[in-house]
Design goal:
Layout lengths: L20 H12 L5 H29 L1
């Protein structure tokens, strides 16, 4: 289990601090023993970072044409 670092003296602790993404990926690989579970993560990540931004202007044009 990945645990967040303790706050420094004088630093306010954050309630919802998440571990860095690389640590999460490494923890998943270690728990599974291989990288197979990350294939679905990779596909969704690529889709959300490439296809969705490209669809934004298309949706705006369609909405403008209909409105």
């Amino acid at each position: 289990m990945i645990r967040p670092r303790p706050p420094e003296p004088g630093e306010r602790p954050e309630r919802h601090r998440r571990p860095p993404r690389a640590e999460v990926v490494t923890a998943v690989q270690a728990a599974a023993g291989n990288a197979t579970p990350l294939m679905a993560y990779t596909i969704v990540y690529a889709f959300s970072n490439v296809v969705l931004p490209l669809l934004g202007p298309i949706v705006v044009v369609i909405a403008h044409a209909l409105g």
